[in-house]
Amino acid sequence: MDVVTLIGRLLFAALFIGSGIGHFAKLEAMTGYAKYKKLPAAKFGVLISGLFFLLGGVYIAIGLWVDLGALLIAITVILAGIIFHAFWKETDATAKMNEQIAFNKDLALGGAALILFALIASGTISGSDFGPHVGNISFFSK
Predict the structure, then answer these.
(1) Which whole-number Å values give the CA distances from 127 to 37, 40, 70, 137, in the listed order?
(2) Residue 142: its pLDDT value, please?
(3) Residue 113: its pLDDT value, please?
(4) What parts of the chain have a pLDDT lower than 50?
(5) H/E element, 116
(6) For a tag on the chain, would you pick the N or C end, based on fewer CB atoms within 10 A?
C-alpha cells in the first residue's frame, strides 16, 4: 500500500504545486480575474493563495507536515469556491453550470484535504502508515 499512498499523494499534490506556480507565473492575469470577481486586495489574495497551494502541495508530496499542507489547501479551495464560483449569482445557464462545476470541484478537493488533515493531525495515520516521507508528517500532533 505504500506505493498506492505515494502515487495518490503525488497526484493530489501535483495539482496544487502546479496551481501555486501558476499563481506566481501569471500573477497579473490572475490578479485581473480576482479584481473582476471583486476580491478585495486582489493581488495579495493571489499571492497568498498561490503560496498556500505551493506549500501545501510540496508538504503533501514530500510527506513533511502533511496535516498543515492539507489545511492550507482546504482553506484556500473552499474559500475560492465560495468567492470565485458563486453559481447561485449567475443568470446565464451555461455560466451557471460552469461555475457550479468549479464550485463542486473546489468543495470536493477541500473535503479531501480536510479528511487528510484530520487523519494525520489526529494520529490515525502515522509516518509508518504514510509511505516514504521526510521528517514528521504531522505539524499539529506530537
Answers:
(1) 41, 40, 15, 6
(2) 66
(3) 98
(4) none
(5) helix 93-121
(6) C
Please state the separation of Cα 113 from the chain's center in Å: 7
Residue 7, C-alpha cell as written in the block = 502515487
State phi, psi for 44 to the nearest 5 degrees. -60, -45
Please name which of 126, 85, 56 lies closest in space to residue 138, comparing C-alpha atoms.
126
The reply to whether 142 falls in a domain is no
Whether 42 is covered by a domain: the verdict is yes
Residue 47 falls inside a structural domain: yes
Query: What pLDDT, on a 0 to 100 scale, did the predictor assign at position 124?
Result: 93
Please tell me the pTM assigned to this model: 0.93
Question: Which residues, at least 6 apart from 131, have a Cβ–Cβ distance to it below 8 Å?
Answer: 1, 2, 3, 5, 6, 9, 63
Q: How many CA atoms lie within 13 A of 120 on its CB side?
A: 25
Q: How many domains does the chain have?
A: 1
pLDDT value for 62? 95
Residue 126, CA distances (Å) to 13, 54, 56, 69, 83 in order: 19, 23, 18, 15, 34
135 inside domain: no
Helix or strand (DSSP H, E) at 44: helix 42-62
Domain housing 21: 2-129
Q: Length of the chain in residues, anyone?
A: 142
